């Protein structure tokens, strides 16, 4: 595969995951900032908060189904077909969120429709990530597979930047005006424009050469089992360890959603200030990640991931004392220290886990490991973290130790995975 083709695929993976993560982040921001008032009873603040976070968690819980469905499509019919379907599903579901009636307009039907669309989003994301990573990885030249795989991960800070750009203005409006004017719909409706761009980028791609070669080798062999059955029969330990290895990948929830909660609830900071700070932090993440991922190719991926996780653990003990100052500059500096350490781990883990499973079950195995982690830890992190913030307020040590516990799970699982054979075609 030529470098020009590999670059084209990596760019398409970046564009597609940027759109997926834009959709994810606008939902995450809206859940924290406005969905409680929009889709739940106005006279019960507790139900509003709980309902908003519950709908956010539902998207994570539905991801494994997407990994199972689109993993099967990707392993049997092709990576490209799966990626086009997931992008369509995610873009349409997100656009439809922008068309929903509020609780005041439709009553209980409003949150029911919101949950249904959130489930569709989760299913789409469940199939998206593994396919984007594999297309970039399997087209990449040898010696640069982790770096090219990181382009799919690069879509996360890019999508975050787009989401924060859109929200940076509308969040300054009084909540009543924001809801009554319908301005809250703009970020979701804008997703349709991004969807068109993403589809154009993906339909022009060639299928993964590794997948094509695998199909030729398997042509005369009877496929006795679905990919997910093969994963459980032949690679259950790898799946479990890969789920654990991915835990730190979801610490982005910590530096975004939980930091909004901590700074606004515990420190009494205006929402607009922390959203502004998170925009510049996303810029730092966007700039740092590709350089760190490229640098990481010079070293053992196992050692690099473990060192990055340890640095991320250490950085959290600098993060909180710095942001206690309560200024936008302190938020940017403190959280950026953590994000820089985390971005190295996040950029490399995708390519690292792409080598774990054999080609015929790779899409399913990789997707199930990531989305299984999303269902377990992605849904629990905001809930546990939110409880810690509520219970301890400005006493930040329990929240820091919670983060360290997440990182430690990843470190242990990556160390254990290093003792297994890799399938690196």
Tag the structure with descriptive keywords.
single chain; 425 residues; mainly alpha; 20 helices; 80% helix; 0% strand
Number of helices: 20
**Sequence of secondary-structure elements:** HHHHHHHHHHHHHHHHHHHH
Amount of beta strand: under 5%
* C-alpha-based Rg, rounded: 21 Å
Distance between the termini: 13 Å
Give the proportion of residues in helices. over 70%
Largest β-sheet summary: none
Based on helices, strands and strand pairing, what is the structural class? mainly alpha
Low-confidence stretches: none
Overall mean pLDDT stands at: 83
Question: How many β-strand runs?
Answer: 0
As an assembly, this protein is: single chain
Using the alpha-carbon principal axes, give the shape. globular
Describe the structure.
It is a single chain. By secondary structure, this protein is mainly alpha-helical. It has 20 helices and no strands. It has helices spanning 3-33, 35-39, 45-61, 63-76, 79-97, 103-106, 109-139, 145-170, 175-181, 186-189, 191-203, 209-218, 227-234, 236-245, 252-266, 271-296, 301-323, 328-354, 362-392, 397-417.
Concise account of the structure shown:
The chain is mainly alpha-helical and 425 residues long. It has helices at residues 3-33, 35-39, 45-61, 63-76, 79-97, 103-106, 109-139, 145-170, 175-181, 186-189, 191-203, 209-218, 227-234, 236-245, 252-266, 271-296, 301-323, 328-354, 362-392, 397-417.
């Amino acid at each position: 595969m030529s470098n020009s083709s590999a670059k084209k695929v990596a760019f398409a993976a970046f564009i597609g995951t940027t759109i997926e993560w834009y959709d994810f982040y606008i939902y995450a921001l809206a859940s924290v900032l406005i969905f409680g008032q929009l889709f739940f009873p106005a006279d019960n603040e507790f139900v509003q908060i709980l309902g908003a976070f519950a709908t956010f968690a539902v998207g994570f819980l539905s991801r494994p189904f997407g990994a199972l469905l689109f993993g099967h499509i990707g392993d049997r019919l092709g990576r490209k077909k799966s990626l086009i379907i997931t992008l369509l599903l995610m873009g349409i579901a997100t656009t439809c969120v922008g068309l929903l009636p509020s609780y005041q307009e439709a009553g209980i039907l409003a949150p029911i429709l919101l949950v249904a669309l959130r489930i569709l989003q989760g299913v789409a994301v469940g199939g998206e990530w593994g396919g984007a990573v594999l297309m970039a990885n399997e087209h990449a030249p040898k010696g640069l597979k982790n770096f090219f795989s990181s382009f799919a991960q690069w879509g996360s800070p890019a999508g975050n930047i787009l989401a924060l750009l859109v929200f940076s203005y509308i969040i300054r409006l009084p909540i009543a005006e924001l809801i009554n004017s319908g301005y809250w719909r703009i970020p979701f409706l804008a997703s349709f424009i991004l969807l068109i761009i993403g589809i154009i980028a993906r339909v022009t791609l060639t299928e993964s050469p590794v997948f094509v070669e695998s199909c030729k080798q398997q042509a005369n062999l009877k496929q006795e089992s679905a990919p997910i059955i093969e994963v459980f029969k032949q690679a259950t330990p790898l799946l479990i360890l890969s789920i654990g290895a991915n835990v730190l990948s979801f610490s982005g929830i910590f530096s975004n959603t939980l930091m909004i909660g901590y700074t606004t609830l515990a420190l009494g900071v205006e929402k607009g200030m922390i959203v502004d700070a998170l925009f510049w932090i996303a810029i730092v993440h966007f700039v740092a990640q590709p350089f760190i991922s490229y640098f990481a190719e010079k070293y053992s991926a196992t050692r690099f991931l473990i060192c990055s996780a340890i640095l991320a653990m250490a950085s959290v003990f600098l993060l909180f004392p710095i942001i206690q100052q309560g200024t936008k500059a302190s938020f940017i500096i403190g959280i950026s220290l953590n994000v820089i350490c985390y971005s190295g781990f996040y950029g490399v883990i995708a390519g690292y886990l792409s080598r774990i499973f054999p080609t015929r079950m790779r899409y399913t195995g990789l997707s199930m490991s990531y989305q299984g982690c999303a269902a377990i830890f992605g849904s629990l992190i905001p809930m546990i973290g939110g409880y810690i913030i509520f219970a301890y307020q400005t006493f930040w040590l329990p929240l820091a130790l919670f983060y360290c516990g997440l990182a430690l799970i990843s470190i242990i699982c990556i160390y254990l995975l290093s003792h297994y054979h890799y399938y690196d075609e």
